Structures are given as C-alpha cells and as structure tokens.
Amino acid sequence: MIRLFAAASILVSSLALAQTFPSRPITLIVPFPPGGSTDTAARIIAEAMRPSLGQPVVIENVGGAGGTIAIARVARAAPDGYTIDIGQWDTHVGAILYPINFDLQKDFAPVGLLSVNPQLLIARKGFPAEDLKGLVAWMKANPDKATFVDQNAAAKLTGILMMQATGTTVQFIPYRGAGPAMQAMLGGQVDLMVVQAAVTLPQARAGTVKILANLSPARSRVVPDIPTSEESGIAGLYASGWFGLFAPRATPKEVVAKLNGAMMQGLADAKVQARFSDLGLDVASREQQTPEGLAAFHKGEIEKWWPIIKAAGIKVE
C-alpha cells in the first residue's frame, strides 16, 4: 500500500509539473567556452525555442575537462526540465576517455537531435592526392609517410579508424586544438586533418587546402559536391559530428515532449535552418529530431565508437 501511494504521488507530481512547465527560465548548459560552433548553435536554438515555451532559454557556458564538467552538472540536476545541455560526440560518447562519475547511457533523457555536422578529411596544398582513392593509393605506395593531425581524441580515433579501414599507416602529430593545427596545415607542416566543414570551407574555397572526402554517412547539404568515404570505396570510415539536446534522466516525458516540441518548431524555421547552414551544420531529419530518434542515434554512436576507444587504449587524465 505504501509503495502504491508513493508511486501515485510521484505520478501526480510529474503531471502537475508538466502542466505548469515552464514557469521560469530554462538553463541550457554549453560545455565549452563562448565563441565556438557549439556555443553559436546553442544560442540559435535557444532563441528559436523561446516563442513556443513562453520563457527564455538562458545560455550558461561551463568549460573544462573536455566538456565533462558541464555534463556531470546536468546529470546531477533536478529532473524538472529547467536544466538541459547541448551535447555532442565529445561529451556524450567520447567522455569515457575521462574519469567520469556518471553514466552516459543511463543518466540522461534525450530531447532531440539538432544537427549532423559534416567532418571533412582535408590535405595540405600540394599534397599528391586529390581524393580519398588517390590518398589510399599514395599511402600504400609510401607507407608511414603521411602525417595526420591529432588535435583531440576524436581526431586521433578517426585516424586510427582510417588506418583500420584502408590498411595504411600514418604518423600522428599532436596539436593543442584545431586553431594551431589549421595554421600548421596552411604552413604545409602536416599532410592530413579531419575538421568540421565550417572551420575549413573558407580555406578550401581559397585553395589553401583541399578536401579529399566527407566523412559523414551521407552527402551534406553544406558541401553537396564532396563524396562520402563510402562513395569513394572505403566503407565504415566516418567521423562523428552532431549536436543534440539532453535533459537529466527521470525528467517527465511530458516535460521532454514540451522541450522537444519547441526545439522542432525552432528547427522548422527557414531562418534557423539558414543560420545552421552558415555554420556548416546540416539540420537533423524530422525523425532524428524526436527523443526516440536521438536515443537511437546516440546508441548507434556508442556501439560504434566505444570498442574503438577501448581498443586504442586512449585515456585523458
């Protein structure tokens, strides 16, 4: 009887919360400093969600430890929908590289996938290959001569996956962040790099680097003429770039539904889509924008990358 009463009380409380939600501003945690693509995308969707919710969505930047400090805060937040995060590969898949004290699969309630972000394999100006097929042929003829930028754990794992998928080898060259790495690329000091479309398109259009392949599963609306790795004959080689919204686990489904409805309504706006495109982001499909769509997408990312991460033995302290 006591258990039944407790369960009924929780249900009534959840329904009451859902009926009044939101009655105050919502905090959207951005796990990186202001100014980057994650922060910009968060501010665009926060602004777009406000009309539907009737409350502001306030950005709070919480950097450090590859974004895991911010994500831990959301995992521990009250499950009432007033604290959510904009997550991505680094924070909701690659976070196992860090000594975290939360569960990436169990401690979050997916709200919806915002975008898939094309990851491009680029080469320095003057590199012998013009496309992915040419790169693989050159690497096989010149074993262990290609240098590959290791600007973060995701980049190194992509390089490892490329070696596995093509039967080639590279020399990893570490850099602290994409900015210094891109400068090295422009200076001809390194051969290959994986980077978001938004970061490299200006250089590619200027002819100072060349794009060899789009490492996304499908062609991008941002770079429609660039073939995918699968189209180039290298199946399974892709780098993950995406943004999604997450709430703490146990957030009532009705609250998640309100957050998701506001998100989807915002993403349907042509101006929002144009702003995402300017950032080099492809808005997720309507199916992926649902909580179920993000849950399935996230599960697939974990199933692909965690075995690679564990096999590589990479850890970040």
Describe the structure.
It is a single chain. With 317 residues, the chain is α/β, with parallel strands linked by helices. 44% of the residues lie in helices and 18% in strands. The protein contains 11 helices and 11 strands. It has helices spanning 2-20, 37-53, 68-76, 89-92, 132-141, 153-166, 178-186, 197-206, 253-267, 270-278, 291-312; strands at residues 26-30, 57-61, 83-87, 108-116, 119-124, 147-150, 171-174, 192-196, 209-214, 242-248, 282-283. The chain has a 6-stranded mixed β-sheet with strand order 2-1-3-10-4-11, with helices on both faces. Strands 8-5-9 form a 3-stranded antiparallel β-sheet. Helix 6 links the parallel strand 6 (147-150) and strand 7 (171-174). Helix 1 packs parallel to helix 9 (253-267) and helix 2 (37-53) packs across helix 9. The radius of gyration is 21 Å and the shape is globular. The N and C termini lie far apart (48 Å). The mean pLDDT is 91.
Main sheet specs: 6 strands, mixed
Distance between the termini: 48 Å
Q: Average pLDDT across residues? A: 91
Percent helix among the residues?
40-55%
Written as H for each helix and E for each strand, in order along the chain, the element string is HEHEHEHEEHEHEHEHEEHHEH
Question: What would the principal axes of the Cα set say about the shape?
Answer: globular
Radius of gyration: 21 Å
* Structural class category: alpha/beta
Widest beta sheet: strand line-up: 2-1-3-10-4-11
